[in-house]
Queue: 3 jobs
Job 1
Amino acid sequence: MVFNRNLKNQTTQATQVKTIRVVGDRAAGKTTYLTALACLSGDDPDSPVKRVVAMGEETENLVRKAKDCLDSKQEISPNVYGDGIEKSYVFKIEFKEKSLPFSYPTVLGIQCKDYPGEFFCDLKDKNNPELLEKYIKDCVEATGILLLLDGTARRDGYYTDCIREFLIQLDRSSSQNAIPNRRVAIALTKCDREELWIHRDSPRDKIMARFQGVNGQLQNLKYIHVDYFATSAFGMLGNEYEISNSTVERTDDSGTRAIIKESNSRLWRPFGLVEPIYWLYTGKRY
């Protein structure tokens, strides 16, 4: 684990904390993503990340419970709809010396909210209007949006309808909001699967091919800047012959449900978790 109790209550004036909302369908991997992010360590020599510090009791509780699920090879429980508005998870991400270009920030402070997948569904179906409005208002106030798409899903029409309504609401609100050129990071999840791993360096092309309708919704946005990323919370095992660090429990058109094979930090190599957050925070890619 990456907890450092000497640091958990400290704040650094030089590090600005920016707010990010994690949005996506049910079982897209949102909570697993945040858990993997919190468990990043400096054991991977190829990663620029030195460590990630979970800040505050609520964040530590989230990660502790989720890590217990990972260690016992169980699926991580989803959030309850309505709770995500109140729960914020705060992380400090520190980078190794000389791992980033000169003048790039080497410490990020982020405050995340993990939206339940039911919010994503309600965008299309217009259910729970009062709760939906509450989530939208909360989302508009964030610095950036991380939109996770299960790269193994075949739900282009459904995703398109949900994302269309989400972007309409966000774009409309952003025109009157103090945040110009709001950033939305579109990230394919579960890229440890073979059919996605081979496209990890070209996520935009894969998104355009797999989710053609979604891609159409991402064009001609006046107040939103979009970029594309590939991620895997479980990552790969091995060096010369890499294999997925996940065991598939179920797969169908709605996507893939899987559990981790190896949660030992010396072997566990999550992929692409920090890149979208860094871009949302700075507008730069490293």
Job 2
Amino acid sequence: MSTIKKVKTAVVGCGVISEIYLTNMTQAFEILEVVGCCDIIKERMERRAKQFNIRQMTIEEILNDESIELVLNITDPVNHHLVSSQVLNAGKNLYSEKPIDLSIEAARELVQLADKKGVLYGNAPDTFMGEAIQTARFYLDSGLIGDVTSVYAVLNRDAGFLAERFPFTAGPGGGIGLDVGVYYVTALLSILGPVQQAAGFVQTRNPDRTHYFPNKEDFGGKFKLQGENLVTGSFRFESGVFGSLMFNSCSIQNEKPLIVMYGTEGILYMPDPNQFGGEVKVILKGKSEPVTLQPTHAFSQNCRGIGPAELAWSLRKGRKPRTSKEMAFHGLELLLGIYKSCETGTFYQMTSTFRCPNPIPRGYLGENYGSPPEAGLAV
């Protein structure tokens, strides 16, 4: 590690999620050197700068600082395009929170701009590089359940409850699909590859809501859900595997996330893809009860920041990041393609494709996921 030059990094967006990003990026991933942060709300920027002993910077200072090679964009979804386009136009490498953008056309602009500028562009979610999904991929690739024939992903939430705690989830890009379903979609894509065709139904059910937290000053006030809260879809992977999903945030706040992969020799159960760890289970042919599989990979804790770290390693190694812009664009197109199918009453034909990211190397299973497991990101 001592022979590898650290990648100087700046963060744009100092909201709630920035704390875990900055904690891991400053303490766990030695490839990164976080030098500054920026936010339109001065108090938030001051708090994070002081907490992590980094500089308070304007977006102009970040873009004009030639020593900064990587920028992390963790602003609200409505600001992703503005910030990402500024970073890319400045010729800097970029890692952005999900979704990559709010429309297929806008996202395609960013992908093409990154290609034009010749810079790396990675996108969340990065949870697919965690212990659980990498463990699932290892056993699937080894043929444990035979040929995968179909997959199913399901999630329930309460959109009203979440909007009270995290107001951005009531705005554009904060719906159950683009904000949370993208974790499920990315997990599937990272293992099974690109999708060819999709169809489905989408609804924003009961969009007019009332604030009901009595200890808040806006108690009794009205607000509107601007994103989808009910999504069901079916799709066919290029490999021939069939997939389906059901995302419902018209439910109660008692999440029961599930991804099931059906194979010719067994059934594999994956845990919440919004987390890095969790039990992977399997039922094999001739058996009646599932068994828990032995983990094969590291990064079981909250490792947000692994995406920027792996992109930094990709920069130093001269390769594409595993959190590729192509896979992120494909995932967005799949979700918005399902929405388009609902509008038109027709199947949506995917226009994009991507190459599956290489698996993270096995091993480095210690809970101290700083130096040893990080070595795996370099491969």
Job 3
Amino acid sequence: MALMTWWRTDALPALPALPGFAAHRTDDVEQIAAVNRIPVREARARLRDGHHAYLATLDGQFVGYGWAATREASIGEVGLRFTLPHDERYLWDFATLPAFQGRGIYPRLLQAMLRSEVTTRAWILHAPENGPSGAGITRAGFRPVGRLAFRADASVALGGIRDDTRAWWGAATLGVELTDEPVSSCWCCPRGEASCGCWSPGPRLSGACACGVAVGVARRAA
């Protein structure tokens, strides 16, 4: 998965005006549960564990949501759980309603969260096959750090480094090693099955590998 970051010293790019857009943090568990389509008990548990919920609206209609972890966070795709420094945030679980995708909701919501959290550093991941997500994160002002993926021995590391200083901070925050060794070009293949080509020479530039597609199908069916 592509790791990206925003630091307080980074500028927030100006985005074209989107009349009627607004974003706010809320602790209303009923509202959070309805918009996120999760049980109220899960919404309440997330808030209790220090996660901040944000909702995006357009002309008063809910169009998207996202979460900011402030204490602990997990990345289920690679089996990581980590504790955040008090002045850092991990942004996760975002969605824009299908009817409003392509209108710039995501980058505007991200920027609203960064302004609200007043954090020193924020981290976010996106699956390499999810081009629209990566584009939205970039538009919001996040910079690429590296690729969080499996090594051949099935351990998780940060490779494909794009920024040495930020990669060091990112690895320290996530509790993983930096590596110059090859890492899987997808986010879900720890063993390098030949059928998906994750471990073939050269990086995978676009598209999902076979195991990534299989995992996605299984999750949608669950």
